[in-house]
Amino acid sequence: MVPVVFGAIVFIYIAMYIIPGDPVQSLVGERPVTEEFRRAIIDRYGLDDPLPTRIAKYVGNLIHFDFGESALSRRQVWDIIKETFPNTARLAVAGTFFLILLGIGSGMISAVRRYSRLDTGVTLATIVLVSTPVFVLGLLLQIFVALKLKDVLGLPITGLDQGLKSYILPGFTLASVSMAYISRLQRTTLLETLESDYVRTARAKGLPERRVIFNHAWRNALIPVVTYLGLDIGTVLGGAILTETVFNINGVGRALAIAISTRDNQVVLGISVFVVVIYLVVNLLVDLLYAVLDPRIRYT
Amino acid sequence: MDISDDAKTLTYTLRQGGTFHNGEPVNAAAFVRSFTRVAQKKTASEVAYHLSGIKGFDAAQEGTSDTLPGVHQGKDEYELVIELEQPNAEFFVRTGHLVFSPVPQVAVSDPKGFNEKPIGNGPYMLDGAWKHNVSVGVKKFAAYNGKVKGFLDSIKWKIYAEVEQAYLEFQAGTIEATDVPPEQFADAAAKYGAAFIDQASAILNYLLANNKNAPTNNKMVRQALSMAIDREAINKAVFNNQRVAAASIVPPVSRGHRAGACKYCTFNKDEAKRLLAESGVQITGPIELTFNSGAGHEEWIQAVAAQIKQNLGIEAVVKPGSTDFGDYIKSLDGLKGLGRLGWGQDYPTPDNWLYPLFYSTSPDNHSFYVSKEFDALIVKAQQTLDDAQRLALQQQAEDLVLEDMPVLPMFYGKSARVYSSSKVASFPVDIQYANPAWELVSLK
Amino acid sequence: MATVETSAGVAAPEVRSLRGETWRRLRRNRMAIAGIAIIALVALAAIFADLIATQPTEGFFADQARESPSARHWFGTDQLGLDLFSRVVHGTRISLMVGFSVVASILLVGIVVGGAAGYFGGIADTLLSRLIDVFLGFPFLVGTIILVTALGGGKMAVIVAIAFFSWPGIARLFRGSVISIRGSEYVEAARALGAGHLRMFFRHVLPNSVTPTLVYAFALIPTTIIAEAALSFLGFGIQNPAEPSWGLMIARYRPLIQTEPHLVIFPGMALTMTAMGFILLGDGLRDALDPRLR
Question: Which of A113, A187, B73, B424 is geometrically suited to a Cys-Cys bond with A107, CB 3.0 to 4.6 A?
Answer without folding.
Answer: A187
